[in-house]
Amino acid sequence: MGHFVRLQLVGRVTYYLGWVSLLLGGLAHLNVGRPIFLAMSLTKRNLFEVSVMLFLICMASELRALALAGSQGSGVGNREMAA
């Protein structure tokens, strides 16, 4: 598994985890399943902070993957031109 594929995988996983935590925060806001969130000591603010953190990790992974793809793509073009 290449570096590019791993970065995209991390981006996808954190993207979906971010949405899940955002939805759980919405459920906590609507008081749906309140005993479960209280048992886990999760507040609405904690769930929101986790979702923001996961989306930031997702964006960073995708940007690094795009930068890596761009640098690899330009290197291939330079080798072909040199040949």
Please tell me about this protein's structure.
The protein has a domain at 12-69. The protein is 87% helix and 0% strand. It has helices at residues 3-29, 34-39, 44-82. Helix 1 (3-29) runs antiparallel to helix 3 (44-82). It starts with a helix and ends with a helix.
Helices and strands, with pairings:
Elements: H1 3-29, H2 34-39, H3 44-82
Helix pairs in contact: 1-3
Shape: elongated
Low-confidence runs (pLDDT<50, min 5 residues)?
none
Helix content: over 70%
Distinct helical segment count: 3
The largest pleated sheet is described as: none
The residue-averaged pLDDT reads 78
First-last Cα distance: 29 Å
Oligomer: single chain
Radius of gyration: 19 Å
Tags for this entry?
3 helices, 83 residues, mainly alpha
Give me a quick take on this structure.
This protein has 83 residues and is mainly α. The protein contains three helices and no strands. It is 87% helix and 0% strand.
